[in-house]
């Protein structure tokens, strides 16, 4: 086989291996967390509600295809994303999934739903709204993350269970949703879905990453 053809075939094999590594919801969830910062195996296992052995197995799979890298600190092993192209791959996949979903196809025809002026709340607006108690502030991260740290005045409605709480949400009061930060898509997804259902809702994009501004 000519060397050029061989290299092309190897590239396709490696792309397929990368695809297989991403073909697991736990591993995609791991990447979503590592987009924000590095985590120890123990911390990721707790966040994902996996055994340490299972979390470690998923991380090793991601490491074999070059998605993550690790470092040891004492008895703990920390993982982080290996390079910026990994982040681009993750968000490209998410964008494709978003586009394929019915509500996001509707969104394309309703550009006002993502109008910058109406969709996002600034830090100072949020502070004023919390002081006057004119909003409902919702943290859509996991219970464990919320219990560890959350913005003042927030209530926790985890992303995975949000649909079950729709009947309890007020339609006569503005809802503000937030998650891990600007790169986290959870609260944006919730904001879009609630707007399509007629709720008055905005996103606080900075999310928990801005916790120091509230201290």
TrEMBL record:
Native organism: Providencia sneebia DSM 19967
Top-level taxonomic group: Bacteria
Keyword Transcription: yes
GO molecular function, one term: DNA binding
Keywords: DNA-binding, Transcription, Transcription regulation
SUPFAM superfamilies assigned to the protein according to its UniProt record, in alphabetical order: Rhodanese/Cell cycle control phosphatase, Winged helix' DNA-binding domain
UniProt name for this protein: Transcriptional regulator
Keyword DNA-binding: yes
Stretches assigned to the Rhodanese domain: 131-212
Pfam families: HTH_20 (PF12840), Rhodanese (PF00581)
CDD domains: HTH_ARSR, RHOD
Domain HTH arsR-type: 7-101
């Amino acid at each position: 086989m000519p060397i050029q053809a061989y290299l092309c075939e190897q590239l396709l094999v490696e792309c397929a291996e990368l695809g297989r590594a991403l073909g697991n919801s736990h591993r995609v969830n791991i990447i979503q967390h590592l987009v924000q910062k590095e985590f120890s195996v123990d911390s990721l296992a707790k966040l994902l509600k996996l055994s340490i052995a299972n979390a470690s197995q998923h991380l090793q799979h991601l490491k074999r295809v070059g998605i993550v890298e690790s470092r040891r600190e004492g008895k703990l092993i920390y993982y982080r994303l290996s390079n910026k192209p990994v982040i681009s791959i993750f968000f490209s996949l998410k964008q494709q999934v978003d586009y394929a979903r019915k509500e996001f196809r509707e969104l394309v025809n309703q550009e006002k739903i993502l109008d910058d002026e109406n969709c996002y709340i600034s830090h100072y607006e949020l502070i004023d709204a919390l002081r006057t108690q004119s909003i409902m502030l919702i943290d859509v991260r996991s219970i464990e993350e919320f219990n560890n740290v959350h913005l003042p005045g927030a209530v926790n409605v985890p992303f995975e269970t949000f649909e079950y709480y729709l009947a309890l949400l007020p339609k006569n009061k503005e809802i503000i949703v937030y998650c891990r930060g600007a790169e986290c898509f959870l609260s944006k997804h919730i904001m879009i879905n609630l707007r399509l259902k007629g709720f008055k809702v905005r996103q606080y994009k900075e999310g928990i990453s801005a916790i120091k501004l509230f201290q």
